[in-house]
Inverse folding.
């Protein structure tokens, strides 16, 4: 069986050379006589793996010294609670709701204090990013929360919100390492890794040190305090060891490709192929306002549910899998993360042209 072109939104495609390397090391990791899957997280060998992974991520993202990198579990969804538990000192936070995950974070925030929705694009099925240059942010808000790239709806902030001096917290699950980023603009920048970095089960939190305190909301479990994990270098309890090992390999792969500016250029080239086709197609239409389009997730429709279903079915038979759109948008969605080769997008566009001619 040859490999398919996997357009899944996550867990998603990984670089082939990373998979091959992991396969080679599966039975015996560098002479240790065992797999990383079987290794104690307290061993010297594993300590090197996690420390190198962190060092490579710091280098790739140019992470300032006053930020901690935490490898955690529970996915982005657990961060929806962990953030207010650790940051809501005034019991108030501002949320910008641009998609399903921002909405879930906003709803979770309401459990811990006053979550204020300061902007939303729900009025048009989250198909755009609202103007965030002059929002009515409460003076005493502890932070401003965004989901920077919206996996389901295919939108992306091109300009970060004006937080008016408040701490910015961003979920970057689906655009993690897709382009250079100025970490110093964020208090917390975090994401689940299963879209652009590694296998499901790891969430990476990059957090400014002044936000890591003992002073959390009463009743916050030990495991949900950033301080617990920061003090123990992500080894307070058994971490998702194998997942972190694969993330480390992906960091090395990105470094080898030339870093985040090269990756951004590649991603722009791939996305342009698909968007250019959608813009001139008589059958397929993109669903997002042009200036807010994501480089990672590209939703599109034919406008006819039966035709959509036919397309998804025929695409799968041709080796293009996981193109069905999220149930809230319908239609199709191509997720073209870092590890999707350009050739995959070229072939998809060829297939779409052919499908359009035949239908």
């Amino acid at each position: 069986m040859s490999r398919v072109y996997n357009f899944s939104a996550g867990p998603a495609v990984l670089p082939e050379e990373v998979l091959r390397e992991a396969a080679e090391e599966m039975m015996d990791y560098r002479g240790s006589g065992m797999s990383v899957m079987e290794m104690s997280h307290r061993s010297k060998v594993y300590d090197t793996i996690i420390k190198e992974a962190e060092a490579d991520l710091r280098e790739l993202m140019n992470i300032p010294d006053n930020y901690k990198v935490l490898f955690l579990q529970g996915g982005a969804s657990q961060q929806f609670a962990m953030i207010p538990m650790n940051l809501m000192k005034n019991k108030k936070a501002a949320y910008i709701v641009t998609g399903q995950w921002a909405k879930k974070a906003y709803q979770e925030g309401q459990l811990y204090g006053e979550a204020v929705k300061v902007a939303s694009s729900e009025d048009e099925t989250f198909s755009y990013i609202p103007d965030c240059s002059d929002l009515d942010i409460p003076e005493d808000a502890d932070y401003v929360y965004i989901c920077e790239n919206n996996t389901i709806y295919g939108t992306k902030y091109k300009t970060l919100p004006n937080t008016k001096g408040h701490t910015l917290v961003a979920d970057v699950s689906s655009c993690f390492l897709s382009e250079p980023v100025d970490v110093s603009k964020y208090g917390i920048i975090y994401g689940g890794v299963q879209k652009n970095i590694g296998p499901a089960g790891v969430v990476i939190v990059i957090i400014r040190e002044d936000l890591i305190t003992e002073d959390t909301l009463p009743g916050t479990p030990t495991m949900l305090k950033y301080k617990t994990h920061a003090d123990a270098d992500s080894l307070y309890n058994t971490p998702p060891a194998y997942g972190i090992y694969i993330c480390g390999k992906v960091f090395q792969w990105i470094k080898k490709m030339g870093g985040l500016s090269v990756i951004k250029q590649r991603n722009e080239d791939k996305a342009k192929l698909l968007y250019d086709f959608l813009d001139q197609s008589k059958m397929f239409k993109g669903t997002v306002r042009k200036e807010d389009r994501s480089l990672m997730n590209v939703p599109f429709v034919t406008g006819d549910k039966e035709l959509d279903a036919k397309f998804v079915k025929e695409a799968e038979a041709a080796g293009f899998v996981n193109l069905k759109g999220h149930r809230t948008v319908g239609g199709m969605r191509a997720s073209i993360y870092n590890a999707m080769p350009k050739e995959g997008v070229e072939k998809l566009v060829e297939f779409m042209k052919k499908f359009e001619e035949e239908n």
Summary: The chain has a mean pLDDT of 97. The chain has nine helices and 14 strands. The domain at 259-358 is CATH 3.90.1150.10 (Aspartate Aminotransferase, domain 1). The first helix runs from residue 16 to 24.
